[in-house]
Structure formats: C-alpha cells, structure tokens
C-alpha cells in the first residue's frame, strides 16, 4: 500500500509539472506577451518598444529559464537600466542590495502579481477559492445524498416502474448541461415577469417578487436559500444523473448476488436486505465515481459562476483567461490541476481501501 | 395583424391536454407508490428467485397510465396534424408544425422504411424493437433533418437568420412582422432576440452547426482513440505506459481552461491549432491505411490499387481540410505552404476549424482509455489466440479480430459522445470562444440571450430546449442501443 501511494504521488507530481509547463508555455507565447505589453504600457507601442518592455521584465528569456524562475528553482532576472536603476523579478526598484532575494517563485510562496485585480495572486486566489469552496460544499451536500438515494431506489428492483421513472430522470439530468438548466431555472423560477414567480406572488404564497434570486452575487457575503439554491441546484443536477446511474448499475449487480438471494430465502425483510446487506457493497463503485466527478464539477462551477455572477474561483478563471492575466491564470491552473490529481489519488486509494477483495490480495 | 397565441384556434383543446397531462402525472406517481406496497394476485418469478406481484390494483393503475399516455400522444398528433393543415391558424405551434413539414415527411419515410426492413438491418434494425431507442432515434433524426433541410436548402427557416428587422427587438413569440411585405412570412414565430433577429430561424440555422460539427468531431476523436488505444492495450508494456500518461495528462486539464488556452485569437495567431489539425487529422488516414493493408496484403494485385485510390482521395480531403488559401500554417512571420488554391476542395472557416480541433483533442483521450480497456479484455479471448496461432500479424488481430468484437460498447459510447460533444460546443459558444458572435449556434445564442433572461427569456430558452432535446435524444438512443446489443 505504501509503495502504491508513493508511486502514485510520483506520477502525480510529474503530471502536475508537465501540465503547468504546458500552461506556462501557452500563456508565454509571443502574441500573448505582446498583448500583455500593450495592455500594460499603451496600445500604440511600436514593435521595438514592446520588445524592450518585455526584455526589461525578463519575458524574452528562454522558456525553461522563465519556467524555472516562476517555480523558484532558478535565480530571478535582474535588469539594470542605462540610468542606473535596478529592478528584478524578486524586488522593486530602489530596494537596497542586501534585501534582494535571489529566488522567488511558487516554491518560496510567491505567486506573482495580478494585472487585472492589481493585487497579490496568492491572496486573490485564496479568497475566491474560499467562496467556491462554500458553493462546492453545498453542491456535494445536495448532490451526493440525492444521487445515492435515486440510484439505490432505482437499482433495488431492476426493471420496476420506479426504476424506469428514476432512470429516465437521471438520463434527463445528464443530458442537461449547466448552461441549459441554469437558463431554464432562471426563466421559470427567478423571473418577475415569466414562469412561476408572478403566479405565486399573485396568490400571495411568496413574500418577495420572485421565488428565487437569479443572481448569486449577494450570496458571496451572506448565502441564503433564496439567493443560493439555484446555482447549487444547477451544478448538482448535471453531476447527479451520472452518479445515480453508476449507483443504480452497482446496486442492480449486487442485488442479483448469491448472498442476497440467501438472505431473501432466509426470510430477511426487504428493507433490511437493502440497507444492511446490499448497500455496503453497492457503494464502493459510486465512491470512485463521486471523487472523479469533482473535476467535472469544476467545469460546472465555471459556467454557473459566470451565469449567476458569483465571483468565485470559476469566475476568476474566466477573468484571468479573457484578460490575459498570465500569473493569475497560471496560479488558477495549478490549483485546478492539483484538485483534479488529488481527487484521482483519493479515488484510487479509496477504491483499494474500501474493496476488501483488492485490499487483502 | 393580431399577434399569434401558442395554439390559436385549437386553444379549446388546451384544457383537455392539461387534464390528460395532469392525470398522467398523477397516475405515474400513484403507480410508483403502489409498486412499493406489496399486493396479492398473480406473481411472476424474477431472475434472483424472488416473486413480484403485477396484477390487482397495481395492474389497473398501470393500465390507466398506458391509456393516458396514448391519449397524450394522440392529442399531440392532433396539434401537429391540424397545424400542418391550417398553419398559423393553429397558433405558434401550428405555424411551426407547418414549417417543419419536410422534416415530418422525411421522418415518416425513414421510420416506415426502417421498420419494414428491420430484420435485415442488423443492430440498426434491432433499435426499432426498443421504445426508448425509437424515441431517441426520432428526436435525433428530427434535428438531423432540420439541420440539413434548414442549413443546406433553406427550407424551414422563415426569415434570414442574420438580418435585423426594425421594431422587432426582444418581441415576444408570435409577434407579427412589422412592415411585412407580401411575400414575407408574417410573424416572428418564436419572437425576436436583442438584435431584432428571428429566434426561430436562428434556431434552425444553429442546428446545422451542431449537426455538421458534432458527429464529425466525434468520429475523428474515435479514429485517434482507436488507432492509439488498440496497440496500447494489445502490446501493453512501455508503449501503454507512455500513451496512458499522455492521455491522463490531457484528461487532468479542466476542459474550460484548455478551451481558453487554445481558442483565444492570440494562440490562433501562432498557428498552434493548425499544427494540431495537421497532427490529429492524419489519424483517419493511418487508420484506413492499416485497416486495408492488414486485410489485403496477401493479395498485392488487389491491395495496391485499392490503397492508391483510397489514400489518394483521403489525402486530398486531408490536405483540403488543413490548408486554406494555399497555406497549412499562416503565422505572422512564416507560412508553411499547403495545397494550392485551385486544388483546394473546400475551405473550413478558421473559427470552426479551431473549435473542431479542440473538441477532437478533448474527446480523444477518453476514447483512447475506453478502447485500451476493451483491447486489454478482448486480447485474452480464444479467437485472438487462434489468430495468433494462425500467424496473423498484430495489426490484423487488432483491427479485424479485436475491434469488431468491441463494436457494441463503442457504438453506444459513440452516441453518448456525440451528445457530450454537443454540450462542449455549447460551452464554447456560451463563453464566446471560437465561433463568431453572430453565429447562430445554440451556445452563442444562449450566451447572447442570458443577459436579458429575466425580462425576455424566449431568446435563450428556445436554443436551450433545443440543445436539451438533442442531447436527451442521443442519450435515449444510446440507452436503446445498449439494451439491444446486450440482448445478442
């Protein structure tokens, strides 16, 4: 087990390094840098001015050198201008020579400076990540139990009416991407002119104008059911169908096993068979699926945060990518890649740990 | 002119329709509840040796549900057929039903022909034994025919999808066209969007974008995945380790981040998508070449001309696909010359090419993993050992022994993956990546419509429902195919 985890960790580190290098390479291509120079300096810069702007700031060094500096394993660049001013990657102009650190990269905890938010990248990402963490937590709390219940109910009597209705429901949810269900939810539940809200308001069933709020901006500070439920529901629905289908398949397989038959012949109550005998074995496969679903939730988060204007991590990704904020984008991609890899690792280890047939052999 | 209502002169039927719908929902819920309660009556023995009751009160409720379902279908047919005959007299639905007339005709012909000959059509014919599969197939073919008739022949659309009509901005569905001339279609059936364009016509044109790109992109992803996945699974060892590592690398990328990195104009300028096109689109040629060569290399007199013709055509298609204006890659400071313009069969719009490439790129690692898993499983079978003993080459075994026996899961996954590709295309449009902003594809339209969502939802709801129905149809189709292929 220890060697297995160590080997997985090694592969994970290698993958993370490769991926960050790819992102680094793509964001540091010359057209991107040129755009950066023009947005930072001014839009009518000549080509020479762009080149000297970039050269002064260390952007024109070879790619591996830049990557090493960003990681913090190579000394950061230092530029001495003709007028004697010296500045570098790790220190501002006018820092005394003794206070200048040689290396500053993500190993040293320096994630760089965001050009869009005019702030340290590290703290920006941390705040946004906390907001998305809140969203994800709510999503998991809603999605996992309901998906498991739907799956177990559908799988315990394969082919029954209940199974067919629930399976159709899960197929329908997997066929509804977030941007479709979100749009439908807003139009039906959160519009003051269309859908259910005007009706309910007329009957006096709801206090406000709408049943739910179509924008989650206010939920960043203070999340209530009214302003936070729609985004959570939108993300949950898409992921739910898949987990439910996997649970159903696993449950249906377990229900045909010999030991379930034995239990039934002994005369154990059906509810006891489902809860005490079948459930434990049926939940091994969904566990992996749930862990592997988290990277997909990240996609949903980006869409939903854009749609509902909730300024979390996904919104940050869109801002960084569309405004060419290189260091912010790098930090965002490192975080998302780490999330993906860690969930993969947990799902592998969890699968081995939960499944006695693999654990013992 | 009066604005259209949804059902026009058939509005008397709406009450009946709602009652039937309500009763159906009620009876479905009742029958689910009833199935939880054990009851006496005739009992059927199921596979695990248990007994299940299916008559009595439960059977009665189920019978009612069945009749109500047929009644609902009949009512929908009444709406459709009346709409076809009296057009907009039957409201917006009637108008749409008449506009879709070519699609109905094509659908009926497809179904009649397929059901007549279903025993001779293999897996495709078996699809017509499963209700779910038929429903899915009907929905999918509906959009395919809509895309082809509307996109190629301009049949279904009522107005130009790009022209703006003054006074029609954000108008509700069924608004009469302001200043309509004699020959014009008199209404905006599904209203106008925020640039005063006809939502209905844009919906139809948008289906063509999806119908064009999604199946092709999925097919290319399958070619890449199969060509790399078969040897990875068959040979295992170091090749498998390297290829699997690369596939996991791409899979670990969040899709949206990858899109943002690949589809921005700056990256397009560097020509990276073109290089990726050159790399990814060569796989179908390799695939076909190996496929034919491994089968016919013992008969050189047949193999050589066959390969020359097939590869010639494919090579020309490949070069036409990747080169535009006589260049394969046209970066800022250098160009790689490609097929000269006069030989260039067709030009793909560069935005569409980039979208196409990135969708193929995102999909192929998953296909690779599936094919690899299947190959690992199938290579231990007896018929593979028999082929090895006969002295067949490894590529023959992979492509003519393993691949045909993996076709069931692959076909099912193909359908699911087209749906997933449709979702990805919508995602790209939703973030305004790749395609132009006036492009009528569903993702871009949803993106344009979502800003005024709480005031004028129709502009975003229409493409959202369209996308939902297409993906749902593909999922149902895959489900039906899975059921039928398991039955073999």
UniProtKB/TrEMBL annotation, chain A:
Keywords: Cell membrane, Membrane, Transmembrane, Transmembrane helix, Transport. Residues 129-347 form the ABC transmembrane type-1 domain. It is found in: Cell membrane. Pfam families: BPD_transp_1. One of its GO terms (cellular component) is plasma membrane. The chain crosses the membrane at residues 9-27, 134-154, 166-190, 225-244, 283-308, 328-354. GO terms for biological process: transmembrane transport. Gene3D superfamilies: MetI-like. InterPro entries: MetI-like (IPR000515), MetI-like_sf (IPR035906). Its main location: membrane. It is a multi-pass membrane protein. Belongs to the binding-protein-dependent transport system permease family. This is ABC transporter permease subunit. It comes from Sulfitobacter sediminilitoris.
């Amino acid at each position: 087990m220890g060697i297995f985890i160590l080997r997985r960790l090694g592969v994970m580190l290698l993958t993370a390094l490769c991926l960050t290098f790819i992102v680094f390479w793509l964001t540091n291509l010359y057209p991107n840098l040129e755009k950066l120079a023009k947005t930072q300096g001014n839009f009518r810069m000549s080509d020479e001015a762009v080149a000297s702007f970039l050269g002064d700031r260390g952007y024109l060094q070879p790619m591996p050198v830049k990557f090493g500096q960003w990681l913090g394993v190579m000394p950061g660049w230092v530029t001495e201008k003709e007028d004697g001013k010296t500045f570098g990657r790790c220190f501002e102009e006018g820092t005394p020579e003794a206070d200048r650190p040689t290396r500053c990269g993500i190993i040293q905890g320096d994630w760089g400076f965001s050009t869009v938010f005019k702030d340290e990248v590290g703290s920006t990402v941390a705040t946004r990540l906390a907001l998305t963490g809140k969203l994800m937590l709510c999503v998991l709390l809603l999605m996992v139990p309901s998906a498991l219940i739907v799956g177990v109910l559908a799988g315990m009597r394969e082919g029954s009416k209940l199974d067919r209705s629930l399976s159709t429901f899960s197929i329908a949810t997997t066929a509804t991407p977030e941007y479709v269900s979100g749009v439908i939810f807003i139009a039906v539940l959160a519009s003051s002119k269309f859908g259910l809200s005007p009706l309910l308001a007329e009957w006096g069933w709801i206090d406000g104008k709408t049943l739910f709020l179509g924008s989650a901006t206010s939920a960043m500070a203070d999340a209530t059911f009214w302003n936070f439920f729609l985004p959570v529901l939108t993300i949950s629905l898409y992921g739910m169908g898949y987990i439910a289908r996997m649970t159903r398949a696993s449950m249906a397989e377990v229900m045909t096993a010999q030991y379930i038959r034995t239990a039934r012949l002994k005369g154990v109550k059906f509810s006891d068979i489902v809860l005490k005998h079948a459930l434990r074995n049926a939940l091994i496969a969904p566990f992996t699926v749930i862990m592997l679903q988290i990277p997909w939730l990240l996609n949903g988060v980006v869409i939903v945060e854009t749609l509902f204007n909730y300024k979390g991590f996904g919104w940050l990704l869109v801002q960084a990518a569309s405004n060419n904020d290189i260091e912010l984008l790098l930090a965002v991609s490192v975080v998302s890649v780490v999330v993906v890899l860690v969930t993969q690792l947990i799902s592998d280890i969890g699968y081995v740990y939960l499944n006695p047939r693999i654990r013992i052999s | 002119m009066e604005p259209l209502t949804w059902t026009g002169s058939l509005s008397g039927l709406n009450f009946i329709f709602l009652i039937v719908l309500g009763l159906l929902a009620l009876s479905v819920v009742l029958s689910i509840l009833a199935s939880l309660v054990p009851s006496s009556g005739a009992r059927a023995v199921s596979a695990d040796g248990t007994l299940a009751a299916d008559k009595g009160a439960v059977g009665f409720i189920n019978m009612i549900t069945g009749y109500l379902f047929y009644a609902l279908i009949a009512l929908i047919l009444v709406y459709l057929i009346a709409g076809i005959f009296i057009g907009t007299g039957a409201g917006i639905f009637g108008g749409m039903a008449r506009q879709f007339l070519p699609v109905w005709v094509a659908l009926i012909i497809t179904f009649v022909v397929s059901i007549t000959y279903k025993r001779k059509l293999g897996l495709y014919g078996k699809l017509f034994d499963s209700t779910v599969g038929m429903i899915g197939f009907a929905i999918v073919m509906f959009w395919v025919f809509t895309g082809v008739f509307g996109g190629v022949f301009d049949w279904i659309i009522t107005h130009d999808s790009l022209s703006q009509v003054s006074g029609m901005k954000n108008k509700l569905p069924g608004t009469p066209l302001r200043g309509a001339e004699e020959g014009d279609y008199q209404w905006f059936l599904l209203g106008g969007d925020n640039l005063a364009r006809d939502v209905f016509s844009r919906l139809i044109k948008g289906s063509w974008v999806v119908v064009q790109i999604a199946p092709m992109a999925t097919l290319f992803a399958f070619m890449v995945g199969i060509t790399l996945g078969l040897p990875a699974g068959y040979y295992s060892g170091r090749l498998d380790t390297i290829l699997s590592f690369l596939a996991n690398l791409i899979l670990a990328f969040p899709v949206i981040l990858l899109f943002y990195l690949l589809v921005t104009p700056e990256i397009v300028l560097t020509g990276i998508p073109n290089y990726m096109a050159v790399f990814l689109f060569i796989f179908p040629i390799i695939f076909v070449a190996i496929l034919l060569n491994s089968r016919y290399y013992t008969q050189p007199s047949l193999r050589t001309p066959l390969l020359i013709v097939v590869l010639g055509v494919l090579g020309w298609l490949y070069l036409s696909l990747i080169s535009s204006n006589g260049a394969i890659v046209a970066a800022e400071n250098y160009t790689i010359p490609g097929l000269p313009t006069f030989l260039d069969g067709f030009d793909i719009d560069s935005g569409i090419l980039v979208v196409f490439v990135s969708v193929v790129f995102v999909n192929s690692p998953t296909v690779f993993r599936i094919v690899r898993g299947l190959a690992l499983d199938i290579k231990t079978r007896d018929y593979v050992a028999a082929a090895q003993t006969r002295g067949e080459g490894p590529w023959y075994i992979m492509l003519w022994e393993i691949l045909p026996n993996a076709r069931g899961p692959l076909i099912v996954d193909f359908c699911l993956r087209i749906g997933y590709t449709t979702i990805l295309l919508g995602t790209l449009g939703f973030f305004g990546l790749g395609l132009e902003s006036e492009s009528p594809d569903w993702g871009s339209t949803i993106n344009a419509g979502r800003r005024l969502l709480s005031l004028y939802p129709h502009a975003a709801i229409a493409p959202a429902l369209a996308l939902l129905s297409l993906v749902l149809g593909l999922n149902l189709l895959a489900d039906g195919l899975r059921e039928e292929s398991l039955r073999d």
